Each structure stands twice: as C-alpha cells, then as structure tokens.
Amino acid sequence: MELFPPLPLESWRDTKETLHRFAQVIGKIRLAGSPRRNHWWNVPYHLTGRGITTRPTGPTRGGDAFTIDFDFTDHRLYLRTLGGREDSFPLIGRSVGDFYRDTLRALIHLDIDIVPEHPYPYDLPDSHRPFADDDEHRSYDPAAVTTYWHILSQVALLLEEYASGYSGKSSPVHHFWHTFDLAVTRFSDREIDQPAADPVTREAYSREVISSGFWFGDDNVPEPAFYCYTAPEPTDLATRPLHPAAASWTVNRGSHLALLKYADVRTADDPWATALDFLNSAYRAGAELAGWGHRRECPGGVTDSVLRTAPPA
C-alpha cells in the first residue's frame, strides 16, 4: 500500500462532514462516561488495528464497563461490554439522526445508562441543531473512509516516533473529535492564565504547550496538512526558519501556525523523513523562543545519558 495516499478534501468533504458528526456523538458519550483527565485527555479517540476506540468507559467501581469502536474495515459501529455483550450496526446509509438513534437504541439494549449531556455538534456550523434532527448529513463513501483510516494509522505511527524524542510531560497521540485532527502535545511547567477563555480552552491550555499533528482539511485550511503551534505564542515565532522549504507560517484564528501541506509530504523523495524534519523544526522554533532548552529532549526515546552513549549490544 502507498505510505501516504491522496485524499483531497473536496473528494470526500460530504463523507467527512458526516463522519465528523458520527465521531462527535460517540465522543460525547465518552465525555459523559469517563473520569475527567488533565487537558481533556479522557475525551479523544485512540487508534486500534481496525479503527478508533473510546477505550473502556464507565461505570467505575464495578459494573459492566463498555467500549465503542468504529471499525473502518467492516464499516460498522461496535458497542461491547466487559461482560461479553455486544451490539453493532452499519455506518453506511445512515444520516446523523439515524446514527444517533441507533446508538441510543444499542445503549439501551446493553443496559448502558449513559447519554450525551448536550447532544448537539460542538463548534460546527450546525451547532444549534440536535444530532437527532440532522438528516442532512448522510454521505458515507467506504473507499474514502478506508483511505482516511490508512492515513490516520500511518500518521499516528509517525507522530509516535516524533513523540519519542521528548521526555517531558506529553499527551498520547490521540484523535480529537472536536477538530477531527490527530495530535500530540508537549508541555512545559509554566502555568498560563486565560481570563477571557471559555472553560474548554482554559483547561486545554492551562500550561504552556507546543502541539503538533495532522488534520484532513477544513474551512480554515482547505486541504490536508501537518501542523505545529506554540501557545502562548512567543514573540517573533513566525520569523523562525522551518524545514523543508515548502513549509510556511500561516495565520490561523489569530495566531501563527507552522504548516506543511500533505501533498508536499507525500510527493517528497522521503515522505517520512520530510514530515519528521518539519515537526522537529517547528518544535525547536517554539521551544527556543519560549526558553525550553534541550533538557527534555531524548533522541530515540533514551533518557539515561550512559545508555545514550553506550555501544549497541
């Protein structure tokens, strides 16, 4: 299989808009049924060998915990309990309203007493419309979703390699249903006050961060791309050099974002090395200006100085 196959936004925009809302429905169930973690780390999806998963979710202190998994090979949603019960239904041919009702039916069938607390899209143009009333979004192209899943899996492995070079506080590599991106975030110890921010943003950025990842395109950046940003943004960040030459700084929602288009990665002589070079150059741009230094860096995932210089066994 091609390492990074093409997936222009316009080739699957309708499917992506539907799948994004499917993911938000299940993501809000995860939000309602899981213990809160710092920076909302309880909320995103993690990857499996066939799709994405909520991971085991409530009830705590005993009871029949459950997972909800998107299977992008069979194109089905699976709900499974710790006690071995299961329900599932196809993803193809359903509107968001159908998907929401089928999900609630499956939860009832499995005696799971958890539902989204606010069953509306989050930060999407139709955030005023309940999921149950959305019969507009109903496109699902299995071939496009399979390609999305292929790209998601490869980029996750690449981000794991990138993440191995940092020994400080770092998030998992996880898939956010808010912005439909795959991200890994590095943290410093500096607390950040955000008096004008909403509660979601305050918790996400309560510490200084450098976040890197990949998204599949949206109205702000209408094509797939790798990205990196530093928050809060240090002065002169956008003057720092990036690698490769195709990378650039762009203004997005009032701050500067290091951006490398997916098309420039997948057509490079060495796409993997090109993407890693970009992520590392963007990280260093923010880290040097923010005064992070090099003490948290651990090439190859090795933190012990003796092991780092020892010859291979």
Jot down its keywords.
5-stranded antiparallel sheet; 7 helices; 313 residues; alpha+beta; DUF5996; 6-stranded antiparallel sheet; Ava_C0101 and related proteins
Helices and strands, with pairings:
Layout: H1 9-33, E1 46-47, E2 51-53, E3 66-71, E4 76-81, E5 86-90, H2 96-109, H3 142-163, E6 174-176, E7 181-191, H4 199-204, E8 207-215, E9 225-231, E10 248-252, E11 255-261, H5 262-266, H6 271-290, H7 305-309
Helix pairs in contact: 1-2, 3-6
Which strand order do you get reading across the main beta sheet? 6-7-8-9-11-10
* Element-by-element helix/strand order: HEEEEEHHEEHEEEEHHH
Q: Report the uncertain regions.
A: none
Number of separate helices: 7
Rg over C-alpha atoms, rounded to the nearest angstrom: 20 Å
Which structural class matches the secondary elements? alpha+beta
Q: Average pLDDT across residues?
A: 94
Number of strands: 11
The major sheet is characterized as: 6 strands, antiparallel
Helix content: 25-40%
How many separate structural domains? 2
User: What separation lies between the terminal Cα atoms?
Assistant: 34 Å
How would you sum up the global shape?
Answer: globular
SS strand fraction: 15-25%
Q: Describe it for me?
A:
- It holds the Pfam family DUF5996.
- This is Ava_C0101 and related proteins.
- This protein is α+β, with helices and mostly antiparallel strands and about 325 residues long.
- It folds into 2 domains: about 10-135; about 140-295, no CATH class.
- The protein is about 30% helix and about 20% strand.
- It contains 7 helices and 11 strands.
- The protein has helices at about 10-35, 95-110, 140-165, 200-205, 260-265, 270-290, 305-310, and strands at about 45, 50-55, 65-70, 75-80, 85-90, 175, 180-190, 205-215, 225-230, 250, 255-260.
- A 6-stranded antiparallel β-sheet has the order 6-7-8-9-11-10. A 5-stranded antiparallel β-sheet has the order 1-2-3-4-5, with helices on one face.
- The radius of gyration is 20 Å and the shape is globular.
